[in-house]
């Protein structure tokens, strides 16, 4: 017995260490790290090194627990401001989007796998939601800096669409087990779904408030606080599930509330949760990889790959386009959101439900879902950075990397003790003075400590300790940041000229001969941009106005436009002819009659003889007939 225990521990730790080591290679070669974890489980399994793990209920339990940890950390790391700006489109994708994807995919599954409509709907619900773990890890660790609204929409969608998919999968498994059909899905079906979402949301808020109160009021040892926090989050998850709510939604909401409030030992909690999320990610994908039997994939590989392509190129794009019609995303942004529809551990977890329910003895659902996940990670996971650059969604970083350490001291609920290392090329290294409110306490140079007034000008590799209010770290980050690859006045991205955001937009129209449409004379440039952007502007946003383009160069702490760039050569990134939103459609419909009238008017004025003459050279546009340019 003891020998078996040691062998299990040895194999488990060996696989975890191998996965952690493989992450170095994945980062080096740009491979999706989650695919690496999954592949290690496959290689170690029954068709590889021979580890025979065939316990679907245990795999589902481990995967659900790991996903709860990841979702709590995901909510903890999502800013409330980002959530407000992206909640409406993200929640639409998480509900209506999952339903549409499921319905479209079900039709393809019926044709390619010869399933019944109920079975096709079940398979559609299994792969209908994006994977929170895959999306969060690839966006936050993938090294790409995309526009905040797009990033927040993807993260919130992936963190909140699991309840819909899980509810659909469980309900359809029960219908198949009972032999019922779609006719059994009455109003009680919607009531149960609303109950899950309602209980999950309410208990998530209550649970987040409870975590805050307990952590802030109990005098726990600093090392116990992160453990206590993660244990409370799992308590929220389990209690919500036991009461008939969505535990995954509850734990995400609890993390969102907790992470956006003043909580004691926040730095320690974040570091601990980051490590726990990595461990949960590794364990979950290893276990799911061990559960699979690759030798069974051949029998279903072709239709499964066909379904994966249908999901990636037809089902999700159509669902995303329909859901985002009212939200004024650009066509390229909608295309990118469609592309980052990564399937991962959630789909494989849900594919275990038919096995547990006794309706997938041949593992058709499980193997199909597994192949779809592999194709998704290979095709989409490997190309996220390429697609973001190709669609013009990469935004130059506002500041460069910062070497900073946050230190916690007793009684510092509203203040932080920060340690910065002065890097070459940063503003402070170039002589920029520190503001008075920074209150530098100590400078460490070459191993010797001294006060700032005796240190003189800060030098490269100095360590500066500052005790400041929690409102100011972002301002200090700019002073200690490394130089960025793109300077803020880079004409290629931010435009050749600077425009005062508070100036009237009519002056811009008069200067460049632009028709602004129904815009009042008092409308400022900033107000015009915010209106065209759908009510909220972010760093790097671009607005085409006639023949010029306005770019948000910077925003203040309140999210207001602080600096605007103007480009006379608008962005040349290709705009897809698909994914028009309502504004685009209305604009096209309005312009069509005008263009028709212009064409008819030009034909009416054009002499018949001109139809037989050769084309007029571009150089004759000045109208003087000498063939020379103006």
UniProtKB/TrEMBL annotation:
It is found in: Cell membrane. Residues 594-630 are annotated as: Disordered. It is a multi-pass membrane protein. One of its GO terms (molecular function) is antiporter activity. Pfam families: CorC_HlyC (PF03471), Na_H_Exchanger (PF00999). Keywords: Antiport, Cell membrane, Ion transport, Membrane, Transmembrane, Transmembrane helix, Transport. The chain crosses the membrane at residues 6-26, 33-51, 57-76, 88-111, 117-139, 197-215, 227-254, 275-292, 298-324, 336-359, 365-388. Residues 490-570 form the Transporter-associated domain. InterPro entries: Cation/H_exchanger_TM (IPR006153), Na+/solute_symporter_sf (IPR038770), Transptr-assoc_dom (IPR005170). GO terms for biological process: proton transmembrane transport. SMART domains: CorC_HlyC. The keyword Transcription does not apply. Residues 618-630 have a biased composition (Basic and acidic residues). PANTHER family: K(+)_H(+) ANTIPORTER NHAP2, NA(+)/H(+) ANTIPORTER 1. NCBIfam families: PRK05326.1-1, PRK05326.1-2, PRK05326.1-3. This is Potassium/proton antiporter, CPA1 family. It comes from Consotaella salsifontis.
